[in-house]
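Form 7-S
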Amino acid sequence: MEKEVNIEKVKYTTLINEIGVLLQKGREQVAHSVNTVLVQTYWLIGRHIVEFEQGGKEKAEYGSFLFEQLSKDLTQLYGKGFSRANLLYMRKLYLTFPKSETLSNVLSWSHYFEILRSDNELEINFYAKQTEKENWSVRELKRQMKSMLFHRLALSKDKKGVLELSEQGQEIQKAEDILKDPYVLEFLSIPQNYQYLEGELEEKLISNLQYFLLELGKGFTFEKRQYRISISGKHFFVDLVFYHRILKCFVLIDLKRGEVTHQDVGQMNLYLNYFKKEVNTEGDNPPIGIVLGADKDHVLVEYATESIGNQLFISKYQLYLPDKKQLENELNKLLDENE
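Output:
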């Protein structure tokens, strides 16, 4: 009799768990539906405001007063959510995405609010596409925008490539597509003038792995740190090893506190040859190697990597957020040169 009671308890616990899963899923679907409806509603409010302004041309004599009055009256009638800033962004949402079907059903109003802070149409389109592709939280989106991800990726392309980046987001099809130069590691909170060791840098990256994976981009999964390689009785250690799910290959990263040298390039080439012969299994593509240093000499890099058959790249990292104005000027110069 006692055994039957125990069996019933197990069944009852299972029932509770199953109901819990269903409730969680249902709540997520409701939240998603609410977000979608909210974005569509705000888009419609934006359209009504633009139509009221006679074709979207805001007139200076009443423009500012309009939003102040609207905010006051709508808040009094319908409660929170109608601040002047919110109303301005509703208007901007409609002007930026004049066709409602181009709105994402994945992005929340909070996502759009952050994205619309930019005045660059290419940048806005990129972050909307990339947030949807990588399912960024609002916090992750803020970080990527602060680190000027769009500009860093765009500066490695020509005008056609920049336009494609804006329209499609980052497409990962080959090794070069996963690279950034520089990588921004401001999340490590290392003071700029602090004399850190390479081991400290590695330790901090592992401690902040979630942010580092976000900086690396879509498709990276962490495999191991200090991966040991033994050749002819000698031992070598790869700082960080990842596997890229999209490119189906290992990605080896070696960290250098100072400028990357030709010896660092040779060492990474050795690692890549070892992985190709000893670690890769059926279905794995050739590994990618990234030597990540605080500085690099472009001429040295050119000579050191010439004629190397492996996918070996050298990139810089920086411990602070990039200068927004400088990157904007560089991107505008690139686009002007390609006119």
